């Protein structure tokens, strides 16, 4: 969001597309939004907060038919779902090392042959003259090894993560006031997200994260904290959730070391936490 806001400050016209209640972009909305002077469409392939996968094939094809460059942020998808840039109608696709267990500080940008970009940093001409400066070779090499391992393990690891993800969703289904967010049918394999809403309000993602941390479980709040002020998640607001729910968004991601026992333990802890946070009915006086 910040890079887009910066482009607007520089005078670029930006169109933000709506999403449905599952967080997906309707291809017809993209088609209607394209103008004669549109130069780029950028869509997040797999949304990090609610786990929803976008219809990249359809969106990219619409952009291609109109002669508009199409970029997708595939950071959450890489290493978990197959990405074939020869098949996908994408001109630009970005991924990150640390999301596939590689070193932090490295990323990769696929550029379709024939697409020319202005250098981000001019100078010695490193990185195909797009980002000059001495490269961190150990980090880049680590990224390459991580990518090789992810590709080799994907056929077995992705189905395993899907089973764990669905196991957690199924066990949480009967939790009062818990609302699963995002799409179940079009979803990142390793991603679980939900809102925990109290009938009396006052429960925030930050509160739930603190409780989980005390139990030794790391999770993330969907809402962002800026300068000490908790803000409702703009993603959940765009999906139609009210402000209390948008303040109580939670996400968990599963990984190589996650087991069924970990999932069961996390669900048990969550239900214990929720019992403590839920308002208790007052006892009638005799």
Characterise the protein shown here.
- The chain is α+β, with helices and mostly antiparallel strands and 286 residues long.
- It folds into two domains: 2-146, Aspartate Aminotransferase, domain 2, CATH 3.40.640; 156-275, Aspartate Aminotransferase, domain 1.
- It is 34% helix and 14% strand.
- Strands 1-2-3-4 form a four-stranded mixed β-sheet, with helices on one face. A four-stranded antiparallel β-sheet has the order 5-6-10-7, with helices on one face. Strands 8-9 form a two-stranded antiparallel sheet.
- Helix 4 crosses helix 8 (260-277).
- The longest helix has 36 residues, at 137-172.
Looking at CATH, the homologous superfamily of the largest domain is Type I PLP-dependent aspartate aminotransferase-like (Major domain)
Low-confidence stretches: 224-228
Strand order of the largest sheet: 1-2-3-4
**Number of DSSP helices?**
8
Fraction in helix: 25-40%
Which fold name is given in CATH as the topology of the largest domain?
Aspartate Aminotransferase, domain 2
Number of strands: 10
Number of domains: 2
Radius of gyration: 21 Å
What is the CA–CA distance across the termini? 57 Å
What is the CATH architecture descriptor of the largest domain? 3-Layer(aba) Sandwich
| Most strands sheet | 4 strands, mixed
- What is the mean pLDDT? 91
